């Protein structure tokens, strides 16, 4: 884990602390994206805005950014997963010594296609206003921050699954051997924690997203991102996708 440096403290508690910290990043990223209108030309399949590149402008920007970040070693970090993994250049820099706590099978899990689809088609329309201000470069940069923050959080399920397995191998081994995904899903689910997570992210959207003025009057009716959308994001997508990563990881854990 890069989180916490050496990774010497690898416990369910430390992993959950990281998930809590990542909530802050996600809420702030969404608030940044909400500054721009939808700018749908950025996502249009048939508008070839870049000479020599066929596809939406957002694909071009994300692919090119990921290529630079790959050369700088971003994807050597087991926490990071690219959205366009095909033909990524190798890292050109000396490797940072990330602690290797995951089972090697975890490296093949990448559900970014589902995250991309959820973010662009379902989430964005819920929290950005309609319209086009033409500032596609800033909008795409902000989309990429959101996508990377969501991807990191969701793929953190690999670390959660590893620690859950290490804490109770005798519970997990039989359903893993039986490839029983439903039983694994039941074992790893903690409804009390999920409820807390959803409440907390809604509260963070309220606290971080209110307009703060110099006077004592805070405008509590206007938030930068609707807190109920943040709660829904976690309820419908972030937690279920994290659990999907956990199950996929566990299924491979004894290979
Ligand atoms: O904290 C855990 O135990 C997790 O597995 C993470 C998480 C989540 O995505 O927030 C997912 C499944 C559990 O039911 C509770 C929470």
From TrEMBL:
Locations listed in the record: Cytoplasm
Keywords assigned: Amino-acid biosynthesis, Aromatic amino acid biosynthesis, Cytoplasm, Isomerase
GO BP of this protein: amino acid biosynthetic process; aromatic amino acid family biosynthetic process; chorismate metabolic process; prephenate(2-) biosynthetic process
Pfam families, per the entry: CM_2
GO cellular component assignments: cytoplasm
EC assignment: 5.4.99.5
Chain ranges of the Chorismate mutase domain: 137-246
MF term (GO), any: chorismate mutase activity
Stored InterPro entries: Chorismate_II_sf (IPR036263), Chorismate_mutase_AroQ_euk (IPR008238), CM_AroQ_sf_eucaryotic (IPR037039), CM_II_prokaryot (IPR002701)
Catalytic activity from the UniProt record: chorismate = prephenate
Pathway: Metabolic intermediate biosynthesis; prephenate biosynthesis; prephenate from chorismate: step 1/1
Location, primary (coarse class): cytoplasm
This protein's name: Chorismate mutase
Organism, scientific name: Populus alba (White poplar)
Lineage: Eukaryota, Viridiplantae, Streptophyta, Embryophyta, Tracheophyta
